[in-house]
Design brief:
2 domains, Rossmann fold, alpha/beta, single chain
Length: 281
């Protein structure tokens, strides 16, 4: 939120002067609750709705009746029916995509297995939609090819407490957190669990490694929210969301938290440390 506010300020929009931000959260809401919240928000007739990801964008689009929607980050917006194509969305939704395809998450799983070559039981932590989408299927395919048992630890709108407890019961040797808006705000939660349980973690956004995940591979959450203000600015100045191409990431960063690795007794291969864009010591 701070990144979004600063990005809007850089474009001349200052909250309390020429900008009104009506903040809402889906935290703790079930799906009917999210729909009710979206409907109430639409009744306020905002000029633009900014959403954190695919699921919230789909639900906002159904309720919005044509109000422009900017996705700060989305997995497979075309497959989710949010856009006709990335180059020309054609509807009321535009913004940023988190990946150029399912390949980046497959690579993240490969990196985790390079870190833990002897691991044979790993948890996939996320919501059911994170497991069922093409990204989740690709991760499952990598695990199957490497003969690694991958079990699903399901989170819910109310949180991931039960999912993390399942890791202990299932004797997971590591856990792979879905790169999803459903998990992005929980980096500290996953980091604390990594340290307390001594179970290595792989997260999908840069900031999550700094919050205690053992490693991350992906983009910066802060960058997504900052870039989303470019779209909001253009729409407020008259652009149609359907004419604004959905931006794909151009760079993926590997971050390794060596401090956490040492604390939980994991020796990181030199080959990974050399390739890391950043090492936290």
């Amino acid at each position: 939120m701070r990144a979004f506010i600063q990005g809007m300020k850089a474009r001349g929009y200052i909250e309390g002067q020429n900008l009104v931000l009506d903040r809402r959260t889906i935290a703790g809401l079930d799906f009917p609750g999210i729909d009710d919240m979206m409907a109430e928000l639409v009744r306020q007739k905002p000029d633009v709705i900014v959403t954190p990801g695919t699921n919230s964008s789909v639900r906002a689009m159904k309720a919005a009746g044509g109000i422009p929607i900017v996705m700060a980050a989305s997995v497979d917006p075309v497959g989710a029916g949010l856009a006709q194509s990335l180059a020309r969305p054609g509807g009321s939704v535009t913004g940023l995509a988190t990946d150029v395809g399912a390949g980046a998450q497959a690579k993240r799983m490969e990196l985790l297995l390079e870190l833990l070559p002897k691991a044979r039981r790993i948890a996939f932590v996320g919501w059911k939609m994170d497991s069922d989408n093409p990204w989740g299927k690709e991760v499952q395919s990598v695990a199957a090819k490497r003969r690694v048992g991958l079990f699903f630890a399901e989170g819910k709108p109310t949180g991931f407490a039960d999912a993390l407890e399942a890791l202990k019961r299932e004797k997971s040797e590591a856990f792979f957190v879905a790169a999803s808006p459903n998990t992005t705000s929980l980096g500290a939660t996953f980091g604390e669990f990594t340290l307390a349980s001594r179970i290595p973690s792989s997260c999908g956004f840069t900031e999550m490694a700094a919050q205690g995940c053992l490693m991350s591979y992906g983009q910066s959450i802060t960058d997504f929210w900052t870039k989303s203000t470019i779209y909001v600015d253009k729409i407020l100045k008259g652009a149609k969301p359907g004419d604004l191409p959905i931006e794909q990431p151009t760079r993926f960063e590997l971050v390794i938290n060596l401090k956490i690795a040492k604390a939980i007794g994991i020796k990181v291969p030199q080959s990974l440390l050399i390739r890391a864009d950043r090492v936290i010591e």
